[in-house]
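The following block was generated as part of the benchmark described in Methods. Ligand: magnesium ion.
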Amino acid sequence: MQKKIETVQTLLDALPFIKQFNKEIVVIKYGGSAQETPQLKEKFAEDILLMYLVGIRPVVVHGGGRQINEMLDALKLESKFIDGQRVTSKEVMRIVEMVLSGEINKEIASLLNSHGAKAIGISGKDAHFITAKAKDFAKFGLTGNITDVKADVVLNLIDEGFIPVIAPIAAGEELGHPGFNINADLCASFVAKAIGANKIIFLTDTAGVLNNNKELFSSLTKDEIEVLKADGTIHGGMVPKVDACLEAVDGGVKKAHIIDGRIEHSLLLELFTSAGVGTEIVA
Ligand SMILES: Nc1ncnc2c1ncn2[C@@H]1O[C@H](COP(=O)(O)OP(=O)(O)OP(=O)(O)O)[C@@H](O)[C@H]1O
Ligand SMILES: [Mg+2]
């Protein structure tokens, strides 16, 4: 009996948060580095489904950096990064698309669907809903900067009860263009801004943003982030992630969070408990 009362209490504790987020869009960036084990993937799917069933409208944008590197290694192609962003040759672009759109996107959609969701996997090439131009072709090749997100494509899916699962690939503007590889963090933020998301949550493989003693910053502002980037405390893949957080909050998303995707149910902890986890970035 005591156990049952505790279960009811847990539900009641979540009630204010369930009310607060009812019908709100929440974008979840599911980092390649958080997609570690089959168990974690299952927990992720359960969390997304629970969010959906209590009235939140989740949109998943996934990465796949680790998986792309593994495939490039297997094919004896080099993985090159500048400031945490991949240098994408034409050859690498083919692999990026195969891994992101072909493998990971379908895996996540099918995982959610096997849990009873109506998930639909797309990339920016579908309906050309994300377009981009080269960031700096000479330096980064086919790594792109987003020029436009057609929000209605995503909003129509949401209105029909689908959970969109988005691979971070954009269409190029000219006929026959191979498309652009977009940093998944920035892709998530641009989508979140365009569709008027209430919140964006980045699931990654660290507790959040850490200082040089590996201690967590529970909250960061734009000015603090600039200092940490300049002195190298924030480097590599964390650079586009904090930039993406700032992009989102500057663009009207209420909150951006970087949380530990290696912890089971960290999404639910973030959404439905008052003790927030990870690093929160405020406008
Ligand atoms: N100050 C910092 N605090 C925490 N992590 C940091 C910091 N500076 C750099 N990092 C690195 O950033 C990494 C997270 O970014 P990374 O791009 O590797 O993962 P992801 O974005 O979750 O996955 P993907 O790129 O596949 O979507 C961490 O694993 C860590 O090595
Ligand atoms: Mg990354």
